[in-house]
Amino acid sequence: MTRNINFVSKFKKANIFSLIIFILSIIFIFFKGLNYGIDFKGGTLIELRTDTSINATVIRDSLKSMNLGDINVKKFGKEGDYLIKVEQKNTNNSNLIPEIKKTLADNLNADVDFRRVENVGPKVSSELLESSIIAISLALAAMLFYIWIRFEWQFSIGSIIALFHDVIITLGIFSVLSLEINLSIIAAVLTIVGYSMNDTVVIYDRIRENLLKYTKISISDISNLSINETLSRTIITSITTLLALISIYILGGEILRGFSFAMILGVIIGTYSSMFVASPILKFFKVSYKTLEKEEEKILP
Amino acid sequence: MLNFSKINIFLIYLILIIISFFSLLNLQTENKTFINKKVNLGLDLQGGSYLLLEINSDPLVKERIQAKVIPIKKFLKENKLDYSNFVVNDKSLIFNIDNPEKFELIFFSKEENLINPYIGQYNSFELDLKNLEKNKLEISFSKYGLLTINNSALKQSIEIVRRRIDDVGTKEPTILQRGEKRILVELPGLKDPERIKNLLGKTAQLNFRLVAQNEEFGVEKLIAENGESLNVSKRVVMSGENLIDAQPSIQNQQNEPTVSFTLDRIGSQKFGRATTDNVGKRLAIVLDGKIISAPNINEPITSGKGVISGSFTFQEATDLALLLRSGALPTPLDVVEERTVGPDLGEDSIKSGITSLIVGFILVIFFMLYKYRLFGLVANIALIANLLMLVGVLTILEATLTLPGIAGIILTVGMAVDANVLIFERIKEELKTEKSIIHAFDSGYSKAKITVLDANITTLIAAIILFAFGSGPVKGFAITLGIGILTTLFTAYFLARHLTSMIILRKKNITLRI
After folding, report:
1. Which of A15, A195, B125, B446 is deepest in the core (most CB within 10 A)?
2. Predicted confidence band at B76 (pLDDT cuts at 50, 70, 90)?
3. What CATH homologous superfamily does A8-37+125-299 map to?
4. Which secondary structure element, helix H or strand E, spans residue B335, and what is its range?
């Protein structure tokens, strides 16, 4: 059974809403900034497990004497698990990690198990940031190109605007919540790009098909029809994907939490954007069956 | 779309069974079967250390440019070119010359050019010449000259790093070149990389030099490990290159750990001559510019064997012996990135990864059953086959499974059903207008095909880009995501379609709830 919801009537409100959130996200990203992890900022990260009697303040205090600069200690999952982040200092001290380990082992009256130690130098971190930005840009460009080949340029623009919308708002939410941006978040963002595109393509595919089928109907109505026709698929796929992601978020451990959270956001935003952002843009470009006729051979492969 | 030839069916299930079979190889604890393939666990799952080392070629460039000083001066004299104000910098030589045109002409001659060899491979000279002012020249290494220095240093470093790590005896280390300046080292199972870092952080350039009485020409002040400052001759009696073996040993009288070394023939001769000529003097043993010890030469040592003492602990003596055995690094190595995961965190990660996979899987299975009943079962069979094939392909490729990789598998579970959902939803629509069930299914599959392909290719593009740009764990995610898409397409379009066709063709007259 195909539902018949009037999506088009909500386009305007949705677009204003999207625009506001989008601009707010950009403002946040620019002014509040993103909370880069050591992957992109450089520095040292230590995950340790200790007695439940130790709290973050004790750890922070015991490291104070080392004069390390900005230290961030926070609980990480279970009771007694902590994550320590030390900012990159200019002095290149190759003994930093053993010194920190020793200080902690000496000052905390408890067994300390160092579960994870990471250290990223300033050169590597800036390279990682650079290659991440290149990767995301390249992914966007590749999508733009793919859609341009498979559809028309109007579709291409529409999908890319939807992608920007998804990526920027996801990052904006990360900025608002001060969540850490690390390599796995970049992986999540790229997957969101893929997923959101996937969703958009399904709807666009149907719009293209309907444009040729009903040449008399306006693009608004075609969009509405197409969104309705594909609605149950959109919902079912979002649900199964979210089920998998929520399972990772809750059970997958602390390391995957940020990643799965970004993905959950991305799936929700991506699903919304393929309906409420990507489709209205076709209307804006006055897409009709004539747009498709120009390159007939492209349409039905 | 619902007709399958026998050959087709045979091929579909053959491929399915063969690839799935590989996934089962991971269950065996020992390698009993003839095929020895397994998915490798990434360092984040099995625990271990990842180190990214960078060679610093600056000291080497300085050394090389200094080595050019004497030949160039000689060359200038031979060609009767007057020079003045000869300055040696870290990266260049600057001097004034009367006839720069003539110099330039000989300097860039391609034949038998000993001071500035022509590198045919790069179509460039080793050195560059720059006119700073009138009659003032600057000589430095050309881009390709620097590249040659860098490349040979990197190659040599990789070799030395490999020797040192092999000598420590960690299991299955990976040592690879990364880019032009870096060496990637992966040490599975290593909990504390400090010892290895220490071993790799030393160039271990050893030389024996005589201690001079006072500050004279050709003497430099060096600090000994015990804080004593000695005047040491710059002339090297013998260097670590002549060592063929070094082993930790215990000096009997004081029970003190020492390092015994054995020299090659040339080294023995040099060492014999120097110790014979200088009985009574002190010989400084210098490692990386620091004096380890400076014993008195009591008698000539001609056996080619010697002992280095220096108030070591036994561990230090063992490490020094190892360093000397493996040879000196051409240039210092910096650790620019380091990631170590303890084995218990790795275990926890595997556990939580598997738990979330199972739970996610069950949730999706139940949801699909609830939504599509019989066809939900078809989709679920396809999903299970998909998982088996995904792990099978990973096994065939002997890919590395990381924690994000497991996340990739779970995500595949969630997204894989999409192909079948697209098809089933399409069939539902077709059923509304089409009376014949068979036709509805047939056109449903045909019409959904393009959409399914388009939708999956976009995710595949993202996975490929992620693979190309990602590092370590993220690459693992890209691999599972990418392969997951391929197995999804296979299971949805071949396996699920065949299962569906069997149901439809058998139950022709039954109304189906999809």
Report:
1. A195
2. confident
3. Multidrug efflux transporter AcrB transmembrane domain (1.20.1640.10)
4. strand B333-341
Residues of B in contact with A139 (CB under 8 A): 461-462, 465-466
> Domain B6-44+344-506 belongs to what topology?
Multidrug efflux transporter AcrB transmembrane fold (1.20.1640)
Task: Tell the burial category of A252 from Cβ atoms under 10 Å away from its Cβ (0-12, 13-18, 19+).
Answer: buried
| Residues in chain B within 8 Å Cβ distance of A259 | 404, 407
Residue type, A72: N
Instruction: Answer yes or no: is pLDDT of B291 > 80.
Output: yes
Residue % of chain B over a pLDDT of 90: 27
At the top level of CATH, the class of A43-120 is alpha beta
Residues 383-442 of B with CB under 8 A from A: 403-404, 406-407, 410-411, 413-415, 417-418, 421-422, 425, 429
Cβ proximity of A40 and A125 under 8 Å: yes
Q: What is the pLDDT of residues B476-508, one digit of tens each?
A: 889 999 999 999 999 998 999 999 888 888 876
Give the fold, CATH level 3, of B58-145. Answer: Alpha-Beta Plaits (3.30.70)
pTM of the model: 0.86
The amino acid that residue B260 corresponds to is S
A31 to chain B, closest Cα gap in Å: 28
Strands, sheet with B256-263, edge to edge from the N-terminal-most edge strand:
B243-251, B256-263, B305-308
Respond yes or no on whether ipTM tops 0.85: yes
10 Å CB burial of residue B192 (0-12, 13-18, 19+) is: middle
Which pLDDT value is given to residue A241?
94
What's domain B204-335's architecture? 2-Layer Sandwich (3.30)
Q: Do A244 and B363 touch (CB under 8 A)?
A: yes
- pLDDT tens-digit series, residues B305-340: 888 888 888 888 888 899 988 888 988 898 899 999
